[in-house]
Amino acid sequence: MDGVLESVAVCAVALVLDRWLGEPRRWHPVVGFGQLAGWIEHQVNRSRPAGIGRGVLAVLALVVPVTLALWLLVGMLSPAFLLVLEVLTLWLALSLRGLAEHGLAVARPLAGHRLDEARTQVARIVSRDAAALDERGVAAAATESMLENGADAVFASLFWFLVAGVPGVVLHRMINTLDAMWGYRTPRFCRFGRCAARLDDAMNWVPARLTALTYACLGNTRRAWRCWRTQAPLWDSPNAGPVMAAGAGALGVRLGGPAPYATGIKDRPWLGSGAEPEAGTIRDAIRLVHLGVGLWLAALVVLVGAREVLW
């Protein structure tokens, strides 16, 4: 089978598995990796906050053996077994159904004005102080999470699989997990987690901009591009800024702004323009991610067709 056509088939089957089965409830390898990473961090960053060097060594100790082992394994497997490995790996890396489930768990009670229930659900997917959020704040937090995690957990996984196969998608998932666990600007993690945070920024740079472009193409393109160009540079994350600014512009809503955290109110820049977010906005963001996945698959099919015609 042609390499590009095979990649399209693997992506399609993995997405079908994600749609039918969702994420495994038990024995998920990402959960196991996170537990191992937590144990290692506890060992080397326990008595006092460790420096950058220990953070680098911890990252290398976790990701290099796995990536190298997968690279060797891919070279040893027969085409049939490799195809199975690719499908299963990409299915486990994707979280399209999980993204929608978490978003809808917030949108449904919010639409029924059950604010306490909506706060409980949004606290599962964002780090801000959910108890201090009003309905607009809950809707904004969940919408931002849908847009950003669409980039991290869906489009970046597809991108790294297409670029570097099984080792690439697993390496990205490991780095992204380490950043989620260690990439905080707190006394404990400011130096120790810097390597994981910088690697995550590097690996997500291209996928984030492709995601922002995808959102812009599927919504209000002119507004999305304007918000991306003018607002994203003000955001503290080099990748979340373009994704959420373009997504907010595409949806025609205003996100960002001051948000409550355990440490106090964080004065964030505004993103997007237009209406204030509500329960329906969360659904719109989920739909935007799903349409984006369809657009990527269609683009891959067109690429395969163009190769057949030209070559």
UniProtKB/TrEMBL annotation:
Which pathway does it operate in?
Cofactor biosynthesis; adenosylcobalamin biosynthesis
Q: Which segments cross the bilayer?
A: 55-74, 81-100, 153-171, 288-306
Answer whether the UniProt record assigns the keyword Cell membrane to this protein.
yes
Pfam families with a match to the protein in the record:
CobD_Cbib
Q: Which UniProt keywords apply?
A: Cell membrane, Cobalamin biosynthesis, Membrane, Transmembrane, Transmembrane helix
Q: Kindly give the membrane topology term recorded for this protein.
A: Multi-pass membrane protein
Where is it mainly found?
A: membrane
Q: Where found? A: Cell membrane
| Domain of life, per lineage | Bacteria
Task: Give a short account of what the protein does.
Answer: Converts cobyric acid to cobinamide by the addition of aminopropanol on the F carboxylic group.
Sequence similarity: Belongs to the CobD/CbiB family.
- Protein name, as recorded: Cobalamin biosynthesis protein CobD
Q: From which source organism is this entry?
A: Marinobacter albus
- The encoding gene is cbiB
